[in-house]
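Now for a concrete sample entry.
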Amino acid sequence: MNSPLETAVLFWIGPVPITQPVVTTWVMMAMIVAGCYALTRNLSLHPGRRQAALELLVTVLDTQIRETMSVSPDRYRTFLGGLFLFILIANWSSLVPGVEPPTANLETDAALALLVFVAVIVYGIRAGGVGGYLRSFAMPTPLMIPLNLVETLTRSFSLLIRLFGNIMSGVFIIGIVLSLAGLFVPIPFMALDLLTGLVQAYIFTVLAMVFIAAAVAESQPSRDSGKD
C-alpha cells in the first residue's frame, strides 16, 4: 500500500507529471458530464419516472440550500450540487477494483478546498461588491481584521483535513483488513466506507454552504443601519 502523501506518476505532458488521481478525476468528470447529458436531454412538461426522480433530487438540494443559507437556491445550485456529486462519486470510486478514490489524495482535497475558498470570495463580492466584502473583515470592529483573515484561511484548511483524513483512513483500513483476512471479511467495512463517503460528501457541501452564506450575509449592507 502506497503512502497517501505519495502519488504514482503515470506519464508526463511536457514538464507536468500526470498522476493516477488526476487520471481518475478526468475519467470521473467525463462520466459525470456524459451522465448529466444523457439524463437531462429530452426533458418534458409531463415527466416520466427518470425525470421525476431527477426533479426530486434537485428539490432536496434546493431545500437544503434554503434551510442552510436562507437564500434562493438559483445562484448556488450548480456549484454546490456539482461539488456534492463529484465528492460522492470520488468517495465511492473505491468500490471499483484497483481504483483508489481521488479524495484519499491530499492534492485533490486541497483543490476542492481551494474551490470553496474562491467561491466564498466570489459570492461575497457578488453580494456586496468589492468594498462590501472587504468591509466584512472589519466586522464587528476593525480590531478583528487579523482574526477574520485567519478564520477565512483556516475554514478552508479544515475542509481539506477533514475530507482527506476520513477518506484516507477508510481506504487504509479496508486495505489492511483485505490483506490480513481475505476477500469477504472486509465487506462490512466496505459498506461502512460507503456510508462514510456519503456523510463526508454531505458534510463538505453543507460546510461550503455555511461559509458562503456567512460571506454573503456579512458583505451585504445592513438594512437597519439607516433607520435609527
